Protein: ADP-ribosyl cyclase/cyclic ADP-ribose hydrolase
Organism: Raphanus sativus
Amino acid sequence: MDSYFSLTKVAAAAAISFYALFGSIFFTRKSSTSHHHENNKTLPSSSSTLLAPTSPSSHNCKHHVFPSFHGADVRTNFLSHVVKELKSKGIDLFIDNDIERSKSIGPELVEAIRGSRIAIVLLSKNYASSTWCLNELVEIIKCREELGQTVMPLFYQVDPTDVKKQTGDFGKVFKKTCKRKSKEEIQRWKRALTEVAQVAGFHSSSGKNEAEMIEDIATDVSNKLNLSAPCTDFDGLVGMESKMTEMRSLLQLDSDEVRIVGILGSPGIGKTTIARAIFNRHSQDFQLSIFMDNIKRKYAVPSCSDDYSVKLYLQEQLMSQLTNEKNIKIPHLGIAKDRLKDKKVLVVLDDVDRSIQLEAMAKETSWFGHGSRIIITTQDETVLKASGIDHVHRVNLPSDDEALQIFCMYAFGQKDPKDGFKELACQVRYLIGKLPLGLRVMGSYFRGMSEQDWKEELPRLRTHLDRDGEIASILKFSYDALNDEDKSLFLHIACFFNSLQIDIMEDCLAKCFSVRKGLRVLSEKSLIHTENGRIYMAKLLVQLGRQIVQKESGKRQFLNNTSDIGEVLSDEEAGSNSVIGILLELPDKITLTGERAFERFSNLQFLRIFGLDVNPQSINYISQKLRVLIWSQFQMSCFPSSFNPEFLVQLRMRDSCLKKLWKENKLLNNLKLMDLSFSYDLEELPDLSTATNLYALSLSYCSSLVELSSSIGNAINLQKLDLSGCSSLVDLPSSMRNLPKLSKLELKECSKLEVNLANINLESLEELDLSECYLLKSYSADIQEPDPWKRRISRLKFIKLSGMKKLVSLPQLPDSLSALDAENCESLERLDCSFCSPDIRLNFTNCFKLNQQARDLIVHTPTNKYAVFPAEEVPMCFTDRSSGSSLTVNLNQLPVGKSTRFKACIIVERVFPGNLCTFEGEVDETEDLFSDDEGEEESRRYSGSICCSITSRGNSLTYCKKKQVEGVLPGHLCTFEVEVETEEVTSTELLFDFGLLISDSKTWTVNECGILQLPEVPSDIDDGVNRLALL
């Protein structure tokens, strides 16, 4: 690197690069962030470096970026702007000005390169005039090859081809530098220049101005640094590594057997934390993974349901989340085994309290593919014994030392007490005990207090605990320290608002509390946490809050206890004006209430009821002050005229018998969320003229709903509208053009809906589902293709058009699109568009009428994901084709650099055990002729990972490259891209071998495959547009 501020150049031979160590971290970490994970290439360690290698985990990074450049070309212009932009983003560059003059520059440069995480090579016209730059580049490329170093070339006023082939003005400068140099040295320089020219980077002549390009460079560097940062979420947890070691010994992760492991312990002891740590560290090693938390409460079912219905419901939840299918249907309990028996999965079932939950979701190891692991957390040992789970990790209380460290982490932010606090911290820890939850809560309580504050609090703590030795007393101590307003907010959350949206709670309590401030206080005291816009409180703290309320005499504000609710609602003389909230949770059951159950609750504001035990006629006597109403399976066809929704913030009446909500127009100016899903009898939506604050409306599977009121156009803050399954809906009102914030619109299975896109405000849409909307209209003529709408949907990311049987063509879609699902569009012929996102996923399953131009477009669309369309054989555009699962590619025709990209394709085939009959066109006698149609359809699809292994004369060039695909049918071509590192190629032939991972080879096989070598991509920007243009 030339001196950045006029320092003397130093011999490049001393600048042995080792900083590539951090590049290997980047490549490893980046792939681990995906839910469906791809394996990474294993990078060899350096065997000939100046200093001994340092492991990534122990290496201390000194700089983010090491720049290599020719100072005279770029120092005072382009480079200075790059440096300024990087520093503005908090990115640290090595600048040789920082080298202490008393030290040799050679070792200092070596240390700087080794201590930098990314190398930027700024290739300018006179870069090759400097032997220092060239020798430095040789070392950078050497580290990239040996250690996976992240290298980012910037081509400043030079052509990448001239750099690669040493031609043009760049070549002239290089040839001048080569005079009187050894042949070996020249060859090293040429090879380094060729390699760096083929790395994707940035080009100053790409069409963007320098300011835009510099911003892109800084953003790309920042993203790479973020992805390379190691996960430290669990590093500060005391004793976690020893628990992880114990868990790994039980899990036996290297074994191919299927193993179910239980984590057993009391509430608040850390079971969920251990399971979460295991999941975060190892989920990338499995084909599918899921963490189902808080099963006892989140997936509760009505107590009146029979066991079989309960199991169906639970298995439906498991499969829906594991396969990412929103409305999956489970007709019988054999579905999980049928779908998962060939897949390596990691499933965590957290807080299981009933054997029936395991029977539904993890009954037998035979349900899951080889190498699968199922982790169960529970506080009930009988659940594990009843399920025959022998591998159990018992979570014990921490040791005295560990307990003190846990307390200190929350009290002082470090594992040891601060100076002067050791004795006080030990006393408090002794009084609290060793339950991790209590240590966390009490540590947070004492955090920030002075030594004198601690001394004043100790006597009160001793008195409190001596009076009541239960766990609740530990937690109540922090509760008692809150001011009256924060105490009340704590009780509101524990008794009603736990797991609800924060903004709903704010609107409900704004007149009584400073909600945001209170939530901040409770969070700082470790009494709550927030996630995805919802508020959560630990189970022990919920129990504490409800116990406190239950002990209130004559002025109880909330009813949560099942027996109390049943007693009070059944006794028409036992009402209370002090009660403001009632929460009846599943699977709790109460005795059937009377018609006047709510008559005496005149101040009731919050009501959550699950089940059929509350007499629906009691709604006639409900409070006029109601702000939250959640009542599943409500049995009346209409609210009474006396019902007042004026103050409602949330109305959720799922699975109700409602035909209409009310007859007269009602004020709805406070309403934010309305959910009437699965109310199959609903025929009419209320007037929404005053619902100006409504942001979410769900009417999914309201199959009797014929039309939406034009008043919906007044819901100007509406963001999410779900009309899925509204099979009687025939039109959307033109007033929907007045919804400027609508970002998600679901119209799936609206089979009678004449979707006129002119009636929808498309500008803000990010997700649009038009699946099985057979009657899609354009703006003008009644032709079966969408109107040219690109300008109006510039934010669209996901669009589903499945089952639109009359759709003939697709117009140009926005560059923002990352997923297009056009399955079963049986009339689709033309694709009058291109796909620019490098992460686009294309599904044209069963689109048999696609013309050749459309098929060519799909094949040649560059994507990091995959594309599927009908094909009985590999198209001729793939230069190498073969029957079976492998083929050989000859590289003689095109020059091959360090790496080359290929477009690969396969056609899968389903075969039957025993007779190996293909599925298409033949019937196997072992088939269940009475099987569910949807289940049969699903079994005809391959979902899993496609592995592509590449070898050259027996030498493996890739670790199995995996591509995760979903629902590929026989008779369809699945295309994707692979990249092969060709540095070690010793033959002109490459052998490509395709396999279907975690699948039964007797059920699915690769029938045909093909390879197309892609042209070399200019090194300026590796985007979809440029790559597509080359094809």
In short: The domain at 872-913+941-1014 is CATH 2.60.120 (Jelly Rolls). The first strand starts at residue 63 and ends at 68. The mean pLDDT is 79. The chain is about 30% helix and 15% strand.
